[in-house]
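FAQ: What does a multi-protein file look like?

Like this. Sequence, then C-alpha cells, then the next protein.
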Amino acid sequence: MKQVIIIGAGGHARVIGDIVRRAGDCLLGFLDDNVPALGKVADYVNYPDAHFVIGIGNAAVRRKIAGMLAGVRWYTAIHPAAVIGENVQIGEGTVVMANAVVNPGARVGDHCILNTGSIVEHDNIIENYVHISVGAKLAGTVTIGENTWVGIGAVVSNNLTVCADCMIGAGAVVVKNIREPGTYVGVPAKKISD
C-alpha cells in the first residue's frame, strides 16, 4: 500500500483522492498554498516516504509544480473502473479517471489527465501535461502535443496531430491537423485566438 499526498485541494484533487482510496492506497492528505490542508506545497519535503500526484487541472501549473518537487516519487492514479488495453504506456503522475478508456498501443505521457469517460483509442500518443476532458474522444492514431487541453465532449478524428499548447473547445470536432498553437472551437474546429 502506497502513502499518497495530492498537491492541490480543489474538486479535481478530491476526485483523485477517491481514486487513491479505491485503488487500495492510503491518502495522507492534500498540500495546498491557498486552502486548509496538511500544509503548503513546499512542505512536501516533510513526507520523504510518500508518493505524490498533482491534483490541479491547469497544465502550466502542473508543469511548474512537477519541476519544483525535485526527487519525489510520483503516483499514477488509475481508477478501477477505467479500461486499459494491452501494450499501453502511462507516464508518472498521470491520472486516469472512472470509465476512461485507453486502447491498445496508446502512449500517455507524464502528468496527464484522462478525465471521466474520455476515450483514447489505439496507437494514440498523448504527450506530457495534456488534459483530455470529460467525454472527449480521440479516434485511432491521434497525437496530442504537450500542454494541450481537449475540452469536454470534443472529438478528434483518426490519424490527426494536434500540436502543443492548444485549447480545443467544448464540443469541437477536429477533422484536420492543427499545426499552430491557439484556441480552436466549432464544427469543424477553427482557430479563434493565439
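And here is the next protein:
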Amino acid sequence: MQEPRPLWKDLLQPAVIVGALGYFVDIYDLTLFMTVREKSLNGLGLAHLITGAPWYQDLLSWQMAGMLIGGIFFGVLGDRMGRLTTLFGSILLYSVANIANGLVDSFGAYAAWRFIAGVGLAGELGGCIALVSETLSKERRGYGTTLVATVGVFGAVVAGWMADHVDALGAMVGTDGWRMSYFIGGGLGLALLAMRVGVHESGMFQQARDAASEVSVRRGDFLSLFTARDRFFRYARCVLIGLPTWYMIGILVQRAATVFAPASGIQGEKIQTNWAVAAFYLGLTFGDLASGVSSQLARSRRKVVLAFLLFSLACVGFYLFGAEGWTSVAYYRLIFLMGFGMGYWALFVTIAAEQFGTNLRATVATTVPNFARGSLVLLTFCFTQLTGTKEAPWISASVAGGVIGAVCFAAAFLALWRMEETYGKDLDYQEMR
C-alpha cells in the first residue's frame, strides 16, 4: 500500500508558497494606507481630513470602491482566462499603483491611485484561494488556504511596524517616510512577480476549460449568480458572514486613535493607528491559524465560524462599552483579541470557494471577500450619518458603532444558520445554467 503524501510536501508546493507571499504583499499594501494615513494627510496639507471628513473624502472608501469593481473584473477574468492570470495581473496593477501613491501631491491624485490600487488588490486573494483549493486534495485544501491566510495577514503587522521605521530611510533618499512606505510596498509586489516561475495553472480549471460543454456551461458568468434562486442565496450567505470583518477593522480599529480611544478615556500613552492596526492583524494571524486547523480537526467549517463570531461579538461589546478608563496596553490587548476573533477570515474565503463549481469558483472567491471589504463604503456612510459632526453631533460614536455592529453580526449569524457545510466537499463539478 502506498504511503500517504506528507502534509508538508503539499503545503510547500509553488502554488501555495507564491499564493501565501502574494497575499502577504496584498495585505501589506491593503492596510498600508491605514498605517500612514495621518502622516500622509498631514504631509499633503490635508490634516482636516483626519477627523470628521465627509464620507466621499474618506480615502479608504475610495480604495474599497475600487475593490468592489476589481473583484468583479478579476473574478470573471479568473474563470475565463485562468487563476494565474488573475493572480499575477492583480499583483502587477496594485504594485504600480502603490508606487504612484508615493508620488501624489493632491487629494484628487491620492484618491484616484487608492481607487486603482483597490482594483488591483481585489484580484490576488480570490485567484490564490481558487488555485490552492483546486490544487490540493479535498481533505487537505483547508490547510493550504489556512497557510495562505496566516502568512498573508502578517503583512499588516509588518506594514504597521514599517510605518514607524521608514522615516530615516526616506530621509536618506530625500523623501517622506510615508512615501517610502508606498515605494517599498510596490517594490515588494514587483519582486514577487519574479517568483511566478514554477507555478502551474489549476488542472481542474484546465479540464473544465477544455471540456466540450460550452453550450450548457459558461465560465465566469457573474450575472448567473443572480438569475437562479439557489445560487443567489448561496452567494449572499457567503458575503454576509464576512460583514463583521471589515466593520471591525474599517470602522472600529481605523478610528481607534482618533475616535474610540479618546471617547473611552484610555490612560497612558496615546493610541497610535499603525500599532492598533498591527495589533489587530497580529491577532488575526493567530486567529486564521487557529480557525483553519480547528476546522480540519472538527471536520466542519460552520461550527468554527460560529465560535469565532460569538467571540468577536463579545470583544466588540467590551471595545465599545466596557473599556472606560483602561490603560493603553490593555486596549491594545483587546484590539489583538478582536483580531483573533476575525480569524475566521481564512474559513470565510475558503467557504466561498467551496460553495460553487469550477466555472464560477474564481468569480465567487474573488468577489465575495471584496464585497465584504467594499461594504465598508456603506458602513462608513452610515457611521458618519449617525454620529453627525463636531458642531452638530447626533449620537455618540460608541452607540453608532454598536448599531452598525448589531446589523452586521445579525446578518452574519442568519447567513451561517442556512449555509451548507463544505468540509471535504468534492469541487470537481460545474454550475449548470
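Q: Is there any per-entry metadata?
A: Some entries carry free-text notes. For the entry above: DSSP finds 18 helices and no strands in the chain.
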